[in-house]
């Protein structure tokens, strides 16, 4: 269970870092556009970067939830296995 919490915390931190990078990139682009002036190609480039970042965040999110599912399944299996071993050993968690 601890490893699941550590894993979740890690991905929450990764998502926060990526969001900060996105904000920084957006602000940098905005300032560059203000300084250099806007043109159609710059806007297209910005849209492409935004699309790429959204895809990256989606992939991270998908991997994150997939791993959480895997860890929950592993936890279920280990709990079941633990209960079976306790039963074989004659141990009850209620005694």
UniProtKB/TrEMBL annotation:
GO terms for molecular function: DNA-binding transcription factor activity. InterPro entries: TF_Kbox. Residues 9-88 form the K-box domain. One of its GO terms (cellular component) is nucleus. This is K-box domain-containing protein. It comes from Coffea canephora.
